[in-house]
């Protein structure tokens, strides 16, 4: 059974429990432990407790030689950190996620997504990202964040979860943010500016001690910035918010400059060819088992449906929900328990959005049909303390025991921005289902006479092929290729 679209209500509950437990416990593992000290038993136990949830929320793990390679580099950086003499000190996991992200939790658990690895161009960049996350563990940044939340429950996760609709970290409140619906992002609070800079500095120190080129930290941040700017342009957005790994304070440009300054004139190995040979064949982009985003359209070949986001809106494919965000509203698409009654289903979604302390009910509910699918939608106007907002839940019946829904939030009177998306939901044909195949990284050697334009024409996309090729390979707008140079293409599996 696909992991995508497992019960959304269940995933909300899991995320809430994780964040509540991590921030509101009486004793925070790692609190008071000096930076750089070995990982304690309490920290290890905490990490082991939440590890399965984090893996599930990110679509599971990638196994095989590619994952083993990432684990080896992570283990090496763990030893460089001095937190433990053994390569078993850290458990490094390659996640099956199409989001550019990496994170770490107390106890020596480090995670990086296959999408972020696919964007990298050498082993030093991989080591730098993993070293940055290990730096957070070494400096006990998570424990310090948890202590801060514990000291001020009104600002901590507990207060946020119970604060009601459209506030803090309530289910509905998360619709007002850039949503990826992952337990790690809910279970860990934002790092401060100084903590991010400290983790960058520690990662660069580990790079140097391992013999890598310390400038790799800056180059991977640059690639992330370019990728996100390209994504924004392709989606018709005027501005770009950085991917999860690079979105923290300070801004990415500042982090690049600080990383370059810290690296100085020191040089080291990149291991570019070794890295490329190890990521050759890695899945890139969405896993069809979890549905795929093609332009503005989301297609799920397993459940056989598709819908199209409004022009100018960004879509993010999470493991338990698809988020749709733009300047005039946010939405999530997901599923939940269904007993055959769509009106009951819509009411349940409103209840889940309201949370424990907020009674959120639709002020009106209507039945309709969308492209042959029975549908029910409900709306509610809510005051978030500053202004009125409209909440819409639009649900569709696909079978007697399966329903899906959108939950959307917009400024009052502007919910119509999502009407075309609600009306676009449809079943797909067998031909469309069969046409959905995964993309993968294909490492090729540049031949004599081959240019960026020629190789980019082989990229498995319908638009911006050259721009995608340059970002993928860390090439500026003026960089050229040399015969014998290895580069990455994104192709369809089987091609």
Automatic annotation (TrEMBL):
- Which positions carry the signal peptide feature in this UniProt record? 1-26
Q: Which BP terms from GO are recorded?
A: proteolysis involved in protein catabolic process
Ranges for domain LysM come to 442-489
Q: List the keywords (alphabetical).
A: Hydrolase, Metal-binding, Metalloprotease, Protease, Signal, Zinc
Recorded hits in InterPro entries, A to Z, give: LysM (IPR018392), Mito/Outer_Membr_Metalloprot (IPR051156), Peptidase_M48 (IPR001915)
- Gene Ontology cellular-component annotations: membrane
Q: Which GO terms describe its molecular function?
A: metal ion binding; metalloendopeptidase activity
Its required cofactor(s), as named, are: Zn(2+)
Tell me yes or no: is tRNA processing among this UniProt entry's keywords. no
Q: Name one Pfam family in it.
A: Peptidase_M48
UniProt xrefs under PANTHER family: METALLOENDOPEPTIDASE OMA1, METALLOENDOPEPTIDASE OMA1, MITOCHONDRIAL
What this protein is called in its record is M48 family metalloprotease
């Amino acid at each position: 059974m696909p992991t995508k679209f497992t019960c959304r209500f269940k995933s909300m509950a899991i995320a809430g429990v994780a964040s509540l437990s991590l921030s509101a416990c009486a004793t925070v593992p790692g609190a008071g432990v000096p930076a750089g000290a070995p990982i304690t038993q309490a920290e290890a136990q905490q990490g082991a407790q939440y590890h399965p949830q984090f893996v599930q929320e990110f679509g599971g793990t990638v196994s095989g030689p590619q994952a083993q390679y990432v684990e080896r580099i992570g283990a090496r950086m763990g030893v460089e950190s001095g937190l433990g003499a053994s390569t078993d000190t850290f458990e490094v996991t390659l996640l099956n996620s199409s989001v550019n992200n990496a994170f770490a939790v107390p106890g020596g658990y480090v995670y990086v997504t296959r999408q972020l690895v696919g964007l990298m161009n050498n082993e030093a960049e991989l080591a730098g990202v993993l070293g940055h996350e290990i730096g957070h563990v070494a400096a006990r940044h998570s424990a310090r964040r948890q202590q801060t939340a514990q000291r001020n429950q009104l600002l901590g996760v507990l207060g946020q979860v119970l604060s009601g609709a459209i506030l803090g970290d309530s289910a509905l409140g998360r619709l007002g943010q850039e949503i990826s619906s992952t337990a790690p992002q809910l279970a860990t609070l934002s790092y401060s500016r100084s903590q991010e800079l400290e983790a960058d500095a520690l990662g660069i120190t580990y790079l140097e001690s391992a013999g890598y080129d310390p400038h790799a930290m800056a180059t991977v941040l640059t690639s992330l910035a370019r990728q996100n700017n390209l994504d924004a342009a392709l989606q018709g957005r005027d501005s770009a918010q950085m991917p999860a790994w690079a979105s923290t304070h300070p801004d990415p440009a500042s982090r690049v400059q600080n990383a370059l300054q810290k690296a100085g004139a020191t040089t080291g190995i990149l291991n570019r060819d070794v890295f490329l040979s190890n990521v050759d064949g890695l899945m890139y982009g969405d896993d069809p088992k979890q549905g795929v985003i093609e332009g503005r359209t989301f297609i799920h070949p397993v459940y056989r449906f598709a819908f199209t986001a409004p022009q100018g809106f960004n879509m993010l494919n999470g493991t338990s929900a698809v988020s749709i965000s733009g300047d005039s509203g946010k939405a999530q698409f997901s599923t939940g328990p269904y007993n055959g009654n769509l009106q009951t289903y819509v009411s349940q979604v409103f209840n889940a959005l309201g949370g424990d302390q907020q009674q959120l009910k639709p002020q009106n509910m209507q039945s309709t049909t969308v492209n042959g699918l029975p549908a029910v939608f409900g709306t509610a106007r809510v005051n978030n303390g500053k202004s009125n907002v409209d909440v819409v839940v639009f649900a569709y019946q696909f079978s007697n025991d399966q329903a899906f829904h959108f939950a959307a939030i917009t400024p009052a009177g502007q919910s119509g921005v999502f009407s075309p998306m609600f009306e676009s939901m449809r079943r797909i044909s067998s031909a469309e289902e069969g046409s959905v195949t995964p993309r993968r990284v294909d490492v090729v050697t540049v031949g004599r006479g081959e240019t960026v334009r020629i190789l980019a024409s082989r990229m498995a996309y319908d638009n911006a092929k050259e721009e995608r090729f340059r970002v993928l390979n860390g090439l500026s707008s003026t960089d050229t290729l040399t015969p014998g140079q290895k580069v990455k293409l994104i192709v369809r599996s089987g091609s």
